[in-house]
Design a protein that fits this description.
By secondary structure, the chain is mostly helical. It folds into 3 domains: 3-16 and 28-375, no CATH class; 376-466; 469-581, no CATH class. Helices cover 63% and strands 5% of the residues. The protein has helices at residues 3-14, 29-48, 60-74, 93-105, 109-134, 139-147, 150-156, 162-182, 185-202, 205-220, 225-230, 233-253, 257-271, 284-291, 296-315, 322-343, 356-372, 379-390, 393-397, 399-405, 414-434, 439-456, 459-466, 469-478, 498-508, 534-540; strands at 81-82, 85-86, 490-493, 512-514, 525-530, 546-552, 557-562, 580-581. Strands 4-3-5-7-6-8 form a 6-stranded mixed sheet, sandwiched between helices. The protein has a two-stranded antiparallel ribbon with strand order 1-2. The radius of gyration is 27 Å and the shape is globular.
Length: 583
């Protein structure tokens, strides 16, 4: 046994576990049942509750949901399409999951969000099982801390590819570290399996991030043997068997796939501003700060303490103790995605979701070490944490003002601020008296309140201001006015946001023409445009009758009926009832 291995084993024994095969503490069936009940309750509320309360938002949610619907309708599990045309921006894992959800629950906006909610739940379960096996006694802390992070909750409720990638990469990294501590190749095989799913979730970024994290970790520990042994031929075969067949199949079916997906949506997206998402280099610092709420303060404390220990040991030319390995691994895992995507010329908040589980695990490890050593926590840390954890109550209570007025009327904010401050005081006093044992429980209280307020109170405003669902419902309500042609009547947009275009495409289940792209329908149709666009719309369809139908004020949109080209026969025809002619 080498010196480094002796140090590992000795330090592990001091922590009450063996480095190779850490024993799981005997747990009563009641404790396990309680944990399962709590995990099911919190995941059900934080990830699944109210998925239908407001419609799909942004451009990506309705677009991904519609791609999955088209694949389901064509019984095609290989080639993603949108409006019947190949849509090769993303791999297929989310679409497969959404197809399964559609088959079970029917096609709907909330069913399109189920894959991300299920993947977030899978992540929480994986963290619970990992900690139960390797850091017993704190598995519920780590799982619930992860589940309650703002970024996890937000992306668990989004019909997108970000949570599938984060889930697969998280499980792969946990499995790799489980192999690192135990050397049980079952864990390494599991890691390669989920990396293969990560390849299907969002492409080569999954194995690339995993390789960077593992390589930097072995460099930090001055032990490259685990890196060499990671390149295990059966594991690589598992990875290829899971991830490669779809890539081959879609390339054979769509020869442009390599150019579109690899060259444009991976290399060009990373290296250029082709897709117009430029942000400063430091963009992800506030993003990660917000995404890790309400745990940001203790993540920072855990990172600072681990780096301090690592630097001290490095200066003294000592190897890391086994007990420090996991913290170093987690810090590298937290930092690598942030730095990687900070270099990218295209930045979106969802890119760093794969890093969030590392932050929550750092908090769990900090609590475990603090309690095992009976260390006290400085009152300043407790106060700052309490303020940060309770601060989101203010915007949650004021969410309707924020969405509808795009501001916080501070004259009406006194009660929310006072309530938030009172919660912070109670939290700080509780933590001061009981210590970190109560950290998880008292911090979950404002999280539950914030999520409940946003879902129950803010949902109508979210629907009205950010989703095309109410506009689509209004268009469907008007259809009977257009007689026999109502079902086949086309819908178009003119200078309207992409979010409106893709949202209408999903909710109306039909392609949406865009005037600016020379897609003016030949026949009678409806068009959605910015408020006050009557004259502009009329000038875009010369020689055709344009009638105002109504206004969708919360999103600043008008919608109009446009006739077909006027002929001698149609010139005397009447317009649909209940509308006002513009020109």
């Amino acid at each position: 046994m080498g010196d480094r291995q002796r140090l590992r084993v000795g330090a592990a024994l001091e922590n009450g576990m063996t480095a190779r095969t850490p024993p799981v503490k005997a747990e009563s069936s009641s404790r396990l049942a309680t944990d399962i009940f709590l995990l099911a309750g919190f995941c059900g509320f934080l990830f699944f509750f109210g998925l239908s309360y407001f419609g799909l938002v942004g451009a990506d949610e309705p677009r991904y949901a519609q791609v999955a619907r088209e694949m389901l309708n064509r019984h095609d599990w290989i080639a993603p399409t949108l409006n019947g045309k190949p849509w090769l921006e993303k791999p297929v894992l989310y679409y497969w999951q959404a197809i399964i959800a559609y088959r079970i629950f029917g096609v709907s906006d909330w069913a399109a969000r189920i894959p991300s909610a299920a993947d977030a739940t899978l992540t929480v379960i994986a963290i619970y099982l990992f900690l139960r096996r390797f850091r017993p006694g704190f598995q519920l802390d780590g799982a619930l801390i992860t589940a309650s992070a703002a970024g996890v909750i937000g992306f668990a409720r989004a019909a997108s590819t970000d949570m599938p990638l984060a889930s697969m990469l998280t499980i792969a990294m946990l499995a790799w570290y489980a192999w690192y501590e135990s050397r049980a190749r079952t864990y390494l095989a599991l890691s390669f399996f989920f990396l293969g799913l990560g390849l299907l979730a969002k492409g080569p970024v999954a194995p690339l991030l995993a390789l960077l994290i593992i390589a930097l970790f072995t460099a930090a520990t001055h032990d490259f043997e685990p890196l060499k042994r990671t390149f295990w031929i059966p594991g690589i075969a598992i990875f290829l068997a899971v991830g490669l067949p779809w890539y081959v199949a879609v390339q054979l079916k769509n020869p442009e796939f390599f150019r579109v997906f690899i060259l444009q949506h991976n290399l060009a997206r990373f290296g250029t501003n082709l897709y117009h998402h430029p942000e400063p280099f430091w963009y992800y610092l506030p993003v990660v700060f917000l995404a890790l709420l309400p745990w940001t303060v203790f993540v920072a404390v855990a990172v600072s303490k681990t780096i301090s220990v690592w630097w001290t040991q490095k200066k003294e030319k000592k190897d890391l103790r086994s007990g420090e390995d996991l913290n170093v691994f987690l810090i590298i895992w937290l930092i690598v995605p942030v730095l990687f995507f900070s270099i990218s010329q295209s930045k979106l908040p969802g890119y760093v979701v794969p890093a969030l589980s590392a932050g929550s695990l750092l908090v769990s490890e900090y609590i475990r070490r603090n309690l095992s050593r009976n260390e006290s926590v400085h009152i300043l840390k407790i106060v700052i944490h309490s303020i940060v954890a309770c601060a989101p109550l203010v915007p949650a209570l004021m969410i309707q003002y924020i969405l509808l007025q795009h501001r916080i009327p501070w004259s009406n904010a006194r009660v929310p601020i006072a309530f938030s401050a009172a919660c912070a005081v109670i939290m700080a006093l509780t933590l001061k008296v009981s210590g970190l044992r109560m950290l998880r429980f008292v911090t979950l209280v404002p999280v539950v309140l914030v999520v409940g307020l946003v879902i129950r109170v803010g949902a109508p405003s979210l629907d009205a201001t950010l989703s095309a669902r109410p506009l689509a419902n209004e268009i469907e309500r008007l259809r009977p006015n257009f007689g026999n042609h109502s079902e086949s009547m086309e819908v178009a947009v003119f200078e309207a946001p992409r979010e409106t275009e893709f949202g209408l495409a999903f909710y109306l289940n039909r392609p949406i023409a865009r005037y600016e792209s020379h897609q003016v329908p030949d026949g009678e149709h409806l068009v959605v445009a910015p408020e006050g666009s009557e004259t502009v719309v009329a000038s875009a369809v010369p020689g055709r009758r344009v009638s105002y139908l109504g206004t969708f004020a919360s999103q600043g949109l008008d919608y109009f009926w446009v006739s077909g080209p006027i002929t001698e026969h149609s010139a005397t025809s009447t317009q649909p009832p209940g509308v006002r002619q513009v020109l």
